[in-house]
């Protein structure tokens, strides 16, 4: 760049021309550094140095460095050498004066010189390479060359010129040059010392940089724009802080290349710990506590960075030392602050991951005093979480899905275990025997069932939709149909459960039944030994109950005990009061299709709760009340007396809304802000925090005090026995709650102060001992002030605290006391005016005090866990109190619904009957802006048992039949219904066959799915069931569809005798009503009016009327759907032609029939009746 094309100096000896060029480069480099030195004082200077160090560290790895010859072009011949030399000497002579002037003007100050020299990088290259370093050149070397070689420029260029120190530093050879003059030797000696210091400093800086960046191989990814580090998060803010000492690997060996490679794969003590724990929990994402951070390593870091949007520092992803990652010597890592642990854990768990938290089991103070002070911190997996087992926070995992109009329909928090085997006598998957066990760890509820299921798996689907688990545990292999169903229900975030569901599988041995029975027996036998003598009878009843469970349920129970033991939640199986079967026949059965088609829990369009029956009835104030109401909605009552009591309670609360006693109940429910049911279970598990415990006890005290005057149900003051019984349960816990509150310091509990949590009289001996130890040490620290005053010859010495460091002795720098400070005192900090010191005696006392504090913290935690265990013995009465309050909350919710205009209290009949006058759809009515058109319905076993519903498309047929079913379900829940009057019988089930979809995964067409569901209904329906069939037979040809629909309808009415609502567009089915002279089957249709040309404009009246609608007006719907007018014109023409053709054909048939009657006269009555029917249809 400074020479003309074709000039090449000798690479063996430094020539005068080369020295002059080097000086010119040095001047320009010094100019650059002088300008840069001024900018170093700004905040951007540090950032510039960091970037420069990164580029230098990267350049050390490059094998090809540019030599001086790379700056020039072609080499010249020897004949023209002298001419070129003379020309260059003239130019160089003129440049020499300019160089001197620039050097005198641009020589940097010592501070600036030191700043940029600190950033130099030494490089030693063997002589065979002869590379020139193209980095910054020392200013001292440039000056020395300028002074020592002025006269040599006029001499022969072939003369060996002694190299200056700067030139010699950047002349690459195997050993230092010894032929230096006296001045050069002195300069070299000074620079040799600086160079050694510089080399050590840069080596340390380089090691820190590599550790921070993640090891070799990371720079290329950064240079090529790797997107691994693009996310900026709160976790990345901590990355500038110091690493844990145990995370530093031994320095690599420099003996040989093979030795360096072996050293690069050496693991740090922390990494060894992580690998050991990871090998035991390979399916979990580990969050490891490292000092003041929680860190992810390897593949876990990559997953966490993706899910949490935090920075992932590149490195090894695998934990098996795979050869593909041999070039990396650090694991990929990501970190989060300690105080944000549960925020991020919840996000990972919600995404379907299994998360393990690894904590340090010893503190720095105790470790320093122990025998393992040089060993790494002891760490252990202390918590394991999945979506079904996360109970360390009272907030819902669904978080934002709060109760309200726009909330989603979240899973219920159940963990469901299922096993499956072929049913007896069946060698394929067509019929299977299924056992399930569902546990809700947050509330202690347990549901179990054992049943047979057909190839459509409707029974499994019904239970899964009712329970709505957030996690599956499948035991052994399940059939393909079951597996597909589980995948369908849990495969995506938009599933019917409202969120992503985790599926885990465990193996099943051939002797699983015997092993499970033995395991369950030993588990509960151990529980019996641990109980007191007063609980022996209850424990024996529990064991008898468990051992009498079906075999497949026992297999599920054993697997669930093992599974929850991993999460320390196995104690939930002691709570036997809530250990209930699913298929108790005291409730109406709502199968999976019914839950979906009638939108019991969520709507079918957005998969949210808005627009569902549960959303309509939910006016609860508490979370535990909401969960109980969800059970009521999904399990309507069959017991008439129980139903009458529930409706009477709702009626009394509605009618007494303005009375003080109902007002007190409303006020009490509005004050309960915490989820007591979940909090109580966290106390039972020993996972409750101190502020949380205080909140639970104070809330229970509030509840019990509000009705403390109630000693028996008769004192409650209500007419309803159900309400009186619930209120009488509330004050039972008052004495126990007050006794626990008297043991704790309320202010300290609220502030989560473990050291003063207990009242002094309630503190354990261990706590008292440690507090006395701390007091003694603090007394000694105060006494040492006198000793320090004597040493410093002062009257008084006071301790100061600076930057969080306590017990500092502050001395003025200008005072005489500075000379009297002992050498053993360690200076901690200082300013221009004062210095602060720690005497060794103070350091030892502080270390002893810290050890007492750590022991005190452990003692306080132990005492707190003991208190939680004591409260757990009162779990049952506390839970009964909360359950009673939840019942009252549900009654108040149903009373709020009943208070709406247009709602009426239903009356109940013993027989299967539905008699509704002016009924309305409960959900559509609330969402519809216009007034909903009411309709009447009359069905009963003694009269009309079935209605054949016809009408135009979009005329309201489906809405009408859903309205009838929903009113029946609401009535049996115990709610008022939207009607003018209603008399309802006790229905045992509601079955629906609505909508059309295929099952491609099972190779089933839409028509096959329709008939399979219909087959299940025909097998399960009883005379007390309500059956809704919507357009059965439309998936095949008209003749086959009509035949199937007519046969099914006839069987339902004549044989099963169920209450049936049958929607169809087949007009021929209306003739079936003639075969029931007593009116068991009636034809009804949705009314409409025609107007416009050829009756093309249809007005829907949405009223039910007697008779048959002979046209469906599908072309009207096509026009509403904006089908092109040209297509509609053709459709109208074809429709008219077909209608005319059918009319002509029917007339021919009638004429032939009349002729036979006139000719033969046989069967005249029957034939004439059929002819009249056909004439009516015309």
TrEMBL record:
Subcellular locations according to the entry: Nucleus
Bias-annotated ranges (Low complexity): 69-86
Pfam families registered for this protein in UniProt: MutS_I (PF01624), MutS_III (PF05192), MutS_V (PF00488)
Protein's recorded name: DNA mismatch repair protein MSH3
Positions in coiled-coil regions: 1128-1178
Biased composition (Polar residues): 154-165
Main function: Component of the post-replicative DNA mismatch repair system (MMR). Heterodimerizes with MSH2 to form MutS beta, which binds to DNA mismatches thereby initiating DNA repair. MSH3 provides substrate-binding and substrate specificity to the complex. When bound, the MutS beta heterodimer bends the DNA helix and shields approximately 20 base pairs. Acts mainly to repair insertion-deletion loops (IDLs) from 2 to 13 nucleotides in size, but can also repair base-base and single insertion-deletion mismatches that occur during replication.
Every DNA mismatch repair proteins mutS family domain range: 1025-1041
InterPro entries, per the entry: DNA_mismatch_repair_MutS-lik_N (IPR007695), DNA_mismatch_repair_MutS_C (IPR000432), DNA_mismatch_repair_MutS_core (IPR007696), DNA_mismatch_repair_MutS_N (IPR016151), DNA_mismatch_repair_MutS_sf (IPR036187), MutS (IPR045076), MutS_con_dom_sf (IPR036678), P-loop_NTPase (IPR027417)
Family per similarity comment: Belongs to the DNA mismatch repair MutS family. MSH3 subfamily.
NCBIfam families hit by this protein: PRK05399.1
Subunit structure: Heterodimer consisting of MSH2-MSH3 (MutS beta). Forms a ternary complex with MutL alpha (MLH1-PMS1).
Basic residues compositional bias, start-end: 199-211
Keyword annotations: ATP-binding, Coiled coil, DNA damage, DNA repair, DNA-binding, Nucleotide-binding, Nucleus
Region annotated Disordered, chain positions: 52-265
Bias-annotated ranges (Basic and acidic residues): 188-198
An example Gene Ontology biological process: mismatch repair
Acidic residues biased stretches: 235-248
GO molecular function, one term: mismatched DNA binding
An example Gene Ontology CC term for this record: nucleus
Provenance organism: Coccidioides immitis RMSCC 2394
Main location (coarse class): nucleus
